[in-house]
Amino acid sequence: MTTFALIGSGWRARTFLNVARELDAVQCGGVVVRTPRSLDVPTFTSLDGCLREVDVDFVLTTTPRNVTPGFIAEAVDRELPVLAETPPASDLDGLRALWSAVGDSGLVQVAEQYPMMPSHAARAAVVTAGMIGTPTQVQVSSTQQYHAVALIRHLLAAGRGPVEVRATRFTAPLIQPLSRTGWTDDEEPHPTTTTIATLDFGHGRSGLYDFTEQQTRNQLRFRRLTVRGTAGELHNDEVVRMTGPRTLARTPLVRRQTGYDLDLIGYDTEHIALGIEVLYRNPYPGRRWMDDEIAIATLLERTAGWVRGEGPEPYPLAEGAQDQHLALAIEESADTGTTVTTSHEAWS
Predict the structure, then answer these.
(1) Residue pair 190/146 in contact by the 8 Å Cβ criterion
(2) Helices (H), the chain
(3) pLDDT tens-digit map of 58-88
(4) Is the dihedral of CA 50, 54, 57, 63 positive or negative?
(5) With respect to CATH, is domain 115-286 assigned 3.30.360?
(6) What's the whole-number average pLDDT of the chain?
(7) Class of domain 2-111
(8) Which segments of the chain belong to CATH 3.40.50.720?
(9) Cβ within 8 Å of residue 94, ≥6 positions away
(10) 13 phi and psi angles, rounded to 5 deg
(11) Closest by alpha carbon to 187, among 175, 170, 202?
(12) Is residue 129 packed enough to be buried (19+ CB in 10 Å), middle (13-18) or exposed (0-12)?
């Protein structure tokens, strides 16, 4: 059993705790909180206090971005691997300072779960298999900042070099029917900002970022993901490609979702397939998890495997730092109305 210490007690911390309870190979041994509280695992007011009582294999931080670097450094100082919630630092100076402090340790991973979500993992499998040729552009309109950048970079295999960013913002009325706590019961439109940016990675590769405030929870806006390649295109859950001379084919990605109608197995995701080829299979059947929970479980188990020396790094700090670097460049470009070219950083 791989044991972690959790730092933080907010909404995201509770999500990790709930998922970890259902895993056989990973468990939370203690939670570090600012003020004592009642949880079903031991709580401590400091990391050192936790470590005196619990043997842990890694530390998971779910803290505000302005304090996360301090907790990362504290764990690394104790030679403990860290899985840090996104983003690992607030601004570029913070990213540089964090990398200077812990980058060479090889002990820090970032909790970027989006590429591990079933739908995104299946889409990545299409791209990796070369079904649409070499990917040249990724368009994401679903999630914010570093998460969207992670998907763009992942699907393009873009690396960590300089990027030219152009961004702008628009404001228009929009109803916000849902929030993190559930239905708002507010049917009045409110001024809502949309940020649109292009990212030029060079060598013919580009990204399009399109995000409306609260889009991650606002079901009045579609989620959209497109990957354009040299020999076809993936759009949401459909692929168009050439399957032979003078032969164009459109094939849907189909999720096998149990529990509908007279399917009495129970509600669950089984797999995602393109025709007869299964691209993704749910590793946690029977738990009835939503996609985010599946991704978090995958992230925790990959982190445990990495800590034990049995698997690769799940998402290295260098990748998470680059995601945040580009997210900050998008905001800077939108703020100033100028093109921003990101610098070559120490983690590149």
Answers:
(1) no
(2) 11-21, 47-53, 68-77, 92-102, 118-128, 145-156, 291-307, 317-336
(3) 999 999 999 999 999 999 999 999 999 999 9
(4) negative
(5) yes
(6) 96
(7) alpha beta
(8) 2-111
(9) 66, 69
(10) -60, -45
(11) 175
(12) exposed
